[in-house]
Amino acid sequence: MQPDIGVRHYRSIWISDVHLGTRGCQADLLLDFLRCHESEYLYLVGDIVDGWRLKRSWYWPQAHNDVVQKLLRRARKGAKVFYIPGNHDEAFREYIGLNFGGVAVVEDAVHTTADGRRLLVIHGDQFDAVVKYAKWLAHLGDGAYTALLGINTWFNYVRRKLGFTYWSLSAYLKHRVKNAVEYIGDYEKALAEEARRRNVDGVICGHIHSAEMRPMEGVLYCNDGDWVESCTALVEHESGELEIINWAASRRLLPVKVSARAAA
Hints:
Elements: E1 8-15, H1 27-36, E2 37-44, H2 51-56, H3 62-76, E3 80-83, E4 99-100, E5 103-105, E6 109-112, E7 118-121, H4 129-133, H5 135-161, H6 169-174, H7 178-197, E8 202-205, E9 212-216, E10 219-223, E11 232-236, E12 242-246, H8 247-251, H9 260-263
Parallel strand pairs: 1-2, 2-3, 3-5, 7-8, 8-10
Antiparallel strand pairs: 1-11, 4-5, 6-7, 9-10, 11-12
Helix pairs in contact: 1-3
């Protein structure tokens, strides 16, 4: 049982790459994060549901349904909730401009912080050359990524049995493979350039499962990370200050209660 740390209030919260419908989704930890954090604005920055995986095989445990209900409840309680579809939930792009239960589906958004900065909010797959020009390769890579997450699940299952906390083997390997590091760098440069092109002060994106916040040649690049590997979110304080929260590190627990069946 985790200690009750109370509810923290922020002006804005950005989350992305939850990948509901997959075994790698850390839904329990996301529910814990949402229970402990409230905001006036909530941005769902793509790949909240993994339509690619659900087309291949159906996986939807109660915790995933609880996440959806929790997000809809936020909208009903008055939070301004925006859903920006990504490539894994691209089917929702057909509903851009509509509102479902208080959740506005938009292609992208420009968020103005409390201190006056204008930030482009976009999933970012439009700037991934593999997704844009070779979608078949993206699907192939997704299969390999799924296999790596399966190894990660077993790895952390053993760690938990030995009394250790969660640690992402997949994230560790990704950040140490030269091609992956170069891919992330190119992606970040492309998003920063788009922010300059649109004449905004920065960009907030997701897609590559790599939380980051740093200035890049005159604009602020922010990536809110994911809820598969790092379990991170981007938040805005009432002052307008931005911060990346690593909830797995904050809680110092295994994000998912892994059963033998789930690990299989």
